[in-house]
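queue> pop job 88
queue> type: inverse folding (structure -> sequence)
queue> payload:
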């Protein structure tokens, strides 16, 4: 009954302004802005609480007190806590196994929310069914049961936390949609208020060629996949990345001429029992590492100068003195190129064989026009506030997008949890 009420309210709010969800991660808190710069953020999500904390207890101390965090936003902003995050699945796997473990875990989370005064919880399980950081140690074959237990886990969470907000962070890459089957997806969406679509990191170090990690076209493809699985567009929050990514490319590929779709280097881990190089060559193709004290450059040669030991240096095959990524990033910002078709900004640093991919304010504006407005999505989401530029250019671009492309709405009433009779 609760979810029927919630979705009914969501439908009634189709004329309301698009909601804005912002993650605040514990690793980037030094230069967080104050409430004078965070206008329009409806939900602030602190990350993360470890997933194992709630298998047998409810104790958790956030990286910043909830009262202090609330002061960074409008009094109407809802404060949530995210559980899990990349590489943290062990607690979820254990919790989802049985009815008793699901109920115990959910009740512990509910107690934690009450104790800290959080308005809701975001389940950031990456990913139910497998393909997580531990895919080599725990292959997907060990996690098949999670395809069926994930919806049951969310159902238990929904029941335990009552009218508090329940959201989930979901994968952006289709190959990670393991638990999001045609059969299970409706059950997943039924239990949650919001779906935070991680439409970034669409290219990672398991891929073989370069591409946009958060491009317009890739983000649109991800949204279309969820809509095809039965997600209500009003539930979906399109994800935006406030960071750039870089990849080392294959030095033998012609990336200078064709940076997009160029072969990535060293996607595989280094072989075991590597021998020292006898001819100055190193890396996966050479099957050798550099002698002690020497660095393996991105081009696959041993040496001791900055050319070998900084940007793109291969730490699996020799010593690295500290990658001068900052210098390469400065060049990327100055000379970056726009791919209008894919909808992303990129740069190839040919001196260091590095490929950069990121969003610009112009690409953010396109996403509002071509995805959020066109697909009538309920909201937007960003990871993460502390990773934005010192001028908060991405935040400002999203604030502008919300004003320019959201449906016009009357003045906002004080925010209340989804599922009550108030606005959210």
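queue> result:
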């Amino acid at each position: 009954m609760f979810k029927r009420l919630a979705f009914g309210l969501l439908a009634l709010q189709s004329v309301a302004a698009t909601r804005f969800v912002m993650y605040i991660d514990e690793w980037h808190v030094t230069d967080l802005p104050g409430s004078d710069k965070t206008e329009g953020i409806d939900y602030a999500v602190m990350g993360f609480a470890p997933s194992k904390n709630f298998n047998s207890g409810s104790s958790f101390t956030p990286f910043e007190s909830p009262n202090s965090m609330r002061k960074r936003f409008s009094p109407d902003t809802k404060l949530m806590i995210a559980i899990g995050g990349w590489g943290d699945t062990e607690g979820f796997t254990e919790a989802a196994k049985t009815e008793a473990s699901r109920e115990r875990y959910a009740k512990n989370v509910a107690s934690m929310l009450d104790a800290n005064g959080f308005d809701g919880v975001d389940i950031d399980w990456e990913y139910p069914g497998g393909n997580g950081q531990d895919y080599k140690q725990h292959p997907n074959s060990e996690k098949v049961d999670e395809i069926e237990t994930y919806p049951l886990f969310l159902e238990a969470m929904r029941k335990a936390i009552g009218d508090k907000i329940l959201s989930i962070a979901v994968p952006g890459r289709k190959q990670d949609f393991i638990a999001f089957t045609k059969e299970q997806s409706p059950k997943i969406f039924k239990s949650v208020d919001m779906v935070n679509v991680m439409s970034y990191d669409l290219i990672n170090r398991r891929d073989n060629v370069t591409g946009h990690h958060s491009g317009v076209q890739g983000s649109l493809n991800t949204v279309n996949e969820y809509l095809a699985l039965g997600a209500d567009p009003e539930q979906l929050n399109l994800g935006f990345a406030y960071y750039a990514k870089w990849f080392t490319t294959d030095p033998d590929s012609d990336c200078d001429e064709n940076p997009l779709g160029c072969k990535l280097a060293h996607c595989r881990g280094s072989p075991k029992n590597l021998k020292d190089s006898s001819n100055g060559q190193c890396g996966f193709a050479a099957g050798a590492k550099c002698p002690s004290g020497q660095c393996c450059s991105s081009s696959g040669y041993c040496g001791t100068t900055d050319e070998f030991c900084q940007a793109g240096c291969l730490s699996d095959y020799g010593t690295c003195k500290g990658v001068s990524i900052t210098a390469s990033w400065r060049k990327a910002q100055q000379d970056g190129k726009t791919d209008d078709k894919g909808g992303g900004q990129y740069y190839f640093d040919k001196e260091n064989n590095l490929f950069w991919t990121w969003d610009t304010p112009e690409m953010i504006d396109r996403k509002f026009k071509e995805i959020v407005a066109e697909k009538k999505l309920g909201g937007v989401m960003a990871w993460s506030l502390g990773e934005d530029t010192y001028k908060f250019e991405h935040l400002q671009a999203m604030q502008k997008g919300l004003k320019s492309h959201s449906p016009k709405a009357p003045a906002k009433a004080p925010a209340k949890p989804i599922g009550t009779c108030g606005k959210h």
